[in-house]
Amino acid sequence: MYNNPVKRPLSLAIALAMGLLLDGCAGRTPQAAPLPEQIAGARTRADHEQLATRYEQAAAAAQQEAQVHREAKDRYERFPYSGLYSPHHVNTAAFAQRCQSAIVANEQAAQDDLALAKLHRDLATETKE
Asked: H helices then E strands: how many in the chain?
């Protein structure tokens, strides 16, 4: 298709330039500041509202992760072959226990995140700005 040695590099250069231009036009979501910096800089009502929303999102993610582990645990508990009867001597009870630990950890993380969200919502209502 490109037998002309001059056209091939020129075509590649044009394609690269178009890619860079289109990438620059793509809308990007601004990244939130790292959490420690955001906490240290929280002075206004909007700052505390942002933190509360961030913690609520983290709680929702933790709850979703706990649900994933609940489903996995259920499957491991219903696995037809376990322990000595497994073709590969896989102890699915240990996997189910691991899932239970992850469920507990994620549920605790969600509770902690919701408590922190409430704290920042309260701080937002008390802040004048």
From this structure: 4, 0
Domain boundaries, position 91: 42-129
13 within a domain of the structure (yes/no): no
Rounded Cα gap, residues 50 and 42, in angstroms: 9
Q: With respect to residue 11, please indicate whether it lies within any of the assigned structural domains.
A: no
Question: Looking at the 3D structure of the chain, how many domains does it have?
Answer: 1
pLDDT at 3: 59
Its sign, for the CA torsion 58, 60, 66, 68, is: negative
pLDDT score at 40: 92
Chain Cα centroid distance, residue 41: 23
Q: Which is it for the CA torsion 105, 110, 112, 113, positive or negative?
A: positive
If pLDDT is split at 50, 70 and 90, which confidence band does 92 have?
confident
Report CA torsion sign: 5, 8, 13, 14. Answer: positive
